[in-house]
Amino acid sequence: MIWEKADDSRSPFRLRQAFLRIRRLIDNNILGRALFSGGFVWLAGDHEFQLYECERVKEARIHGIQTLACIATLSGVLELAFLDVIQQDWGLVHLTKSLFRSNDDDHNRLSNQQATCEANVLVHPLKN
């Protein structure tokens, strides 16, 4: 178990290992990435789908999904799937955030993310 007695000299090592396992799961999981970044991930087309190896993306590809958008809200993550390739839509992201009552911090974060968006795929670094 990762939670052991504080006097166990290996506890910090085990906690770090557990953290690294969780971090790898988040980094490779589209839903976790959106949730823990507080932003969104928008994948449109085969090339962008290949950037993620998580089961969610593989399942979407099997079912013919061409666009997958995961948008973090205060309530969780809204997942949208489309059979067509739809390029990133900031209006839809803002509408989703406002419908799910996101706060002003989310609006400011979105503005900063828009400036750093590359190739229609928004991948957010996790804060330490």
Automatic annotation (TrEMBL):
* Keyword tags: Nucleus, Transcription, Transcription regulation
Q: What is this protein called?
A: Transcription factor
Iron-sulfur found in the keyword field? no
| GO-annotated cellular components | nucleus
Q: Which residues does the UniProt record annotate as the domain Transcription factor MYC/MYB N-terminal?
A: 27-100
Q: What is its main location?
A: nucleus
Q: Which domain of life is it from?
A: Eukaryota
Its taxonomic placement starts with: Eukaryota, Viridiplantae, Streptophyta, Embryophyta, Tracheophyta
Annotated signal peptide: none
- Where found in the cell? Nucleus
Q: Name one GO molecular function term.
A: transcription cis-regulatory region binding
